[in-house]
Amino acid sequence: MGFFKELGASALTDKSIDVPTGGVEEGVPVTYVPFRNGIFLSMAAAIAEKEGAEVICIGVVEEDSSGYPDCRESYIKSMQESINLGTKDSTHITIEMPLVHLQKSEIVLEAIAHHVPLALTWSCYQNEDQACGVCDSCRLRLNGFELAGVKDPIDYMVD
Question: What is the CB neighbour count within 10 angstroms for residue 149?
Answer without folding.
Answer: 9
